[in-house]
């Protein structure tokens, strides 16, 4: 991995969100729901919801990364997960910040399969080594990405909160 970093600012995030929304719209896909993968996909899911006029936004919590270049063996969905019955027959757009290994996106896409009319995936960044090719991606990079919401340390000591 290169020591250079991909830096996403809040301004660039706004640009990426609008360009991704336009790409989704231009493709003819009209999602009934946006399923945002927490935490990284929350801001993108919200932004796409407004840009694509989709009010039905749901969240799925997936844990995979535990630190910079530190991850669990496999991603796991944390409760509460959306009920499959709630997704029945919907066109779902699964949103995340990055498809790095692609395992998180793959897990959530597989969760949707068989329950939805159609599931497509959207990310701000995808990486060449990802096991899944997102349907929509703003940029491809091999670099570590500094996202504006996670580049600075927390303002509180996470260990003091009982986590």
TrEMBL record:
Signal peptide: none annotated. It comes from the Bacteria. InterPro entries: PRTase-like (IPR029057), PRTase_dom (IPR000836). SUPFAM superfamilies: PRTase-like. This is Phosphoribosyltransferase family protein. CDD domains: PRTases_typeI (cd06223). The keyword Glycosyltransferase applies. GO terms for molecular function: glycosyltransferase activity. The keyword Transferase applies. Residues 13-151 form the Phosphoribosyltransferase domain. Keywords: Glycosyltransferase, Transferase.
């Amino acid at each position: 991995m290169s020591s250079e970093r991909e830096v996403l600012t809040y301004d660039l995030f706004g640009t990426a969100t609008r360009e991704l929304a336009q790409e989704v719209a231009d493709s003819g896909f009209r999602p009934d729901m946006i399923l945002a993968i927490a935490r990284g996909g929350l801001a993108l899911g919200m932004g796409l919801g407004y840009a694509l006029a989709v009010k039905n936004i749901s969240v799925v919590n997936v844990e995979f990364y535990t630190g910079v270049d530190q991850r669990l063996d496999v991603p796991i969905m944390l409760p509460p997960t959306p009920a499959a019955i709630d997704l029945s027959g919907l066109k779902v757009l699964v949103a995340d910040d990055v498809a790095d290994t692609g395992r998180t996106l793959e897990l959530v896409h597989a969760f949707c399969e068989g329950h939805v009319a159609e599931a497509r995936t959207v990310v701000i960044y995808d990486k060449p080594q990802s096991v899944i090719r997102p349907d929509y991606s703003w940029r491809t990079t091999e670099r570590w990405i500094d996202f504006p919401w996670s580049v600075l340390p927390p303002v509180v000591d996470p260990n003091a909160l009982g986590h």
